[in-house]
Amino acid sequence: MAVAIQSFAKINVGLYIGAPGARGDGFHDLRTVYQTIALHDTLKVEIKRGMSGVEIRCKDKRVPEDESNTCWKMAERVMKALRATGRVVISIDKRLPVQGGLGAASGNAVATLIGIERACKRRLEAAERLRICAEVGSDVPLFLLGGTVLGLGRGEQVYPLPDLPDLDVVVATPEVGVSTPAAFKAWDGLFDRSGMTKTAQSAKLDSFSHHVYEWLDRYCCSPTGVSTRGGNRAEPLLLDLVRTGIENDFERVVFPQFPELRDVKRAMEHAGAKYASLSGSGSTVYGLFAGKAAAVKAAAALQAKGIPAVATKTLSRAQYWRQM
User: Fold this and answer.
1) Do 149 and 38 fall into the same domain?
2) Which of 50, 244, 291, 300 has its CA 20 to 30 A from that of 234?
3) How far apart are alpha carbons 233 and 285 in whole angstroms?
4) HSE-up of 54 (CA within 13 Å, CB side)?
5) Per-residue pLDDT tens digits for 258-317
């Protein structure tokens, strides 16, 4: 019997990138706040007995159906860790953009993990889950948590943060494919051209962490540490987010290469977004709004300009797991 799993997307509320070569392992240090949202793919995971291997099925031709797919990588590792046998068949109903900066492939990988566990009626230990997810991809572990998540290291070190108040989001997905490796390469070139220093960028990463903690502590927690959710808190939270100056470093290299994405961000702001940003390395641009009516109106305005856009919501940690 196939197990159906919803595989949700994420946005990045700020993303700061470390200097090239600072880690010594070829990766970049990152600081970001991940936030899960309600847009999703749907996966069906089935284990066929008497057979072996992995099979990926997807009607979207942009989705690889071989071992390069994150779901394939995840399936092989999870089956080995569970000491399970059978052929894992993964059917992906693809609704999220490919190379869109929404973490679709990473979310699909975690949905595969959960689908295999449910099909086998066995569950890996939390530490083993995290180890496997970090092997598969840098932002895969965030989908083990959901909600509002702090990402450190190369993005794989994840820590649950107090959930943000419910926020309305408009997600715009222009028909542009941005390669994350190419975006990192362009970032490295920026150091050569602009005179940026490793010391200054390291200080910027530390400053980001400080601003995030201060921002979230002020608006998401009461003095007793209890999360206080509610739409009436959205507007002051978003205005304060703008004041912090939190931004996505990828915009510095992606927007010059794809100026149409800068135009989408400006259109998002003109449509009333309190805060707008590239998500990940793009090409998705999102806007945060203080209410549903404003978000729906903005999505319609963007669509009228020929920009694919949809209104959605953030997902708290509890909502993420309940809906999955």
Assistant:
1) yes
2) 300
3) 23
4) 23
5) 999 999 999 999 999 999 999 999 999 999 999 999 999 999 999 999 999 999 999 999
Expressed as residue numbers, the domain containing 306 is: 168-318
Selected catalytic residue, list 10, 73, 94, 274:
10
9 plus 33 within the same structural domain: yes
Which one from 41, 94, 139, 265 is the annotated catalytic residue? 139
Same domain, 186 and 153: no
275 and 130 fall within a common domain: no
Predicted confidence (pLDDT) per residue in 121-175, tens digit: 999 999 999 999 999 999 999 999 999 999 999 999 999 998 988 999 999 999 8
- Whether residue 194 is preceded by a cis peptide bond, meaning omega within 30 degrees of 0, is no
The reply to whether 10 belongs to the active site is yes
Q: What is the pTM (predicted TM-score) of this model?
A: 0.92
**323 domain residue, yes or no:** no
Annotated active-site residue 139? The verdict is yes
* Structural domains in the chain (count): 2
